[in-house]
Amino acid sequence: MSEVRRDIVTDTWVIVDIENDTIPKVTVTTSETSEDCPFDDGKENRTPNEIFAIRDGTLPNKPGWKVRVIPNIKPILRIEGELEKTGVGVYDMVTGTGANEVIVETPKHIVNFFDLPDEQIVLVLQTYRERIVDLHKDERMRYILIFKNHGRLAGASTIAHTHSDLIALPATPIRIKQKLNGAREYYGYKERCLFCDIMQQEIEMADRFVFQSDSFVVITPYASRFPFEILILPKRHCFSYKLIDQNEITDLARVLKKILKSIYDILGDVPYNFILNDSPNLIPRSDYWKTIKQDYHWHIEITPRIYRTTGFELGTGFYINRFSPEKAASALRASL
Q1: Contact, 105 vs 162, CB < 8 A?
Q2: Continuous H helices in the chain
Q3: How confident is the model over 82-104, as a mean pLDDT?
C-alpha cells in the first residue's frame, strides 16, 4: 500500500511506501582516503589561488588557514565577462557568466563533515554567509547555490576531503522558483509564511518531528522524495541566510553535526546531498519580489542517495520514496 503525497511548497508529487519497515542500506561507502590530497594544509600550491580564507595572520595561499575558498579547477561558469541575453529563434540563451567555488572546510584530512569540531563547523557556516554577501554585490549573479555532495552516488568528486561547492548563477533555478511561487501564493491567501506554518504543524503533530534546538527545527518532510530526507528550518522567520546571526550559526553547527551523525549511525556512510535553499539576489531587480521578506524562509535540505533516479522519475516528475518519512523520523529520534 502506498500514498501519493503533494509537496505543498513546490506542487510536486511523491509516491510513499507506508508499509515497508526495513531501513534501506547502501553498500557503496565514501571511506576512501588520500595520501596526496590537494586540499590538505601545506598543499596550497596544488590549487588555484584562494578567493577567501579564514586565517590567523598567515599569508594567502600558504599554510596556516582554517577555512579556504578556491575557484573550481574546472569551472562550469566563469566570473569574467558580461552577462548577455540572446534569443536563438524561440529559445533563450544567457552567457555562461557566474562563479564556481570550492569551500575547503578544514586543513586536516577529514572525510565526514560531522567529524569536524563544533567550532570548525561554525567557521564553515560563517564562510557560507561571507561568500553570499560578497557575491550578492555583483548584479550579474541572480542566485547563489551552496551545496555539498558526499559520496560518489551523490555526485561527489574523487577528492574525499570534506568540502562544499558554491555556484553563482545568472538565473534563478526552477526548483527555487517553485518554492518562491508556492510561498508567495500561500502568503497571498493567508498572509502568513508557509514555512513557519509547516514548522508549527510538524511540531504539534510530532509524526515527522525529529528534534529542535534553541534556533532550529528538524523534520522529515511530509512529501519526502528520498528515505531519511531532512528539512532544517530556522525558528526565526528570515528570508535570507546572509541575515543569520552568530548565535544561530553556533546553534546550526551543533544541529548539523548531530543530524549528520545520526544519519551515519542508522544508514552507514550513505551518499547524500546537502543544499542551502536561500533567496535570490535582490540587487539586480529591487522590485523582483515585493513580499519576499515576509513570505520566504531560508532552509536546508539533506537528501540521502540510497536509490538511483529511474525512468519513472524522469518521465513523470514524481518521486518514489520506499521508506516513509514518519518511520524515518522515528528512527532518527531513537538514535539521538
Answers
A1: yes
A2: 118-135, 174-190, 194-205, 246-267, 292-295, 311-316, 325-335
A3: 78
Decide: residue 166, CB within 10 A, 0-12 exposed, 13-18 middle, 19+ buried. Answer: buried
Residue 260 and residue 114 in contact, taking contact as beta carbons nearer than 8 Å: yes
Superfamily, domain 2-335: HIT-like (3.30.428.10)
Nearest of 251, 93, 239, 73 to residue 165 by alpha carbon: 73
**pTM for the structure as a whole:** 0.92
Q: Which three cell numbers stand for residue 29?
A: 561507502
CA neighbor of 230 nearest in space, from 193, 269, 274? 274
Cα gap 104→40, rounded to integer Å? 9
Residue from 76, 126, 66 nearest 101 by CA:
76
231 pairs with which residues across the strands?
219, 301
**pLDDT of res. 190:** 95
Query: Cβ(187)–Cβ(294) under 8 Å?
Result: yes
Report the pLDDT averaged over residues 20-39.
72
What cell numbers appear for 176 in the block?
A: 527555487
The bridge status of strand 319-321 relative to strand 12-17 is: parallel
- The stretch 201-220 carries a mean pLDDT of 98
Q: Would you call 232 helix, strand, or coil by DSSP?
A: strand
Q: Give residues with Cβ within 8 angstroms of 274, minimum separation 6.
A: 113, 147, 148, 150, 164, 300, 301, 302
**For the chain, domain boundaries:** 2-335
Q: Return the pLDDT at 77.
A: 82
Render 177-224 in DSSP notation, one character per residue. HHHHHHHHHHHHHHSS-HHHHHHHHHHHH-SSEEEE-SSEEEE--TT-
Give dist(CA 137, CA 134) in Å, integer. Answer: 6
Could you tell me the pLDDT band of residue 272, with boundaries at 50, 70 and 90? very high
| Rounded-to-integer distance, Cα 299 and Cα 235, Å | 10
* Residue 14 DSSP SS3: strand
Cβ 28 vs Cβ 156: under 8 Å: no
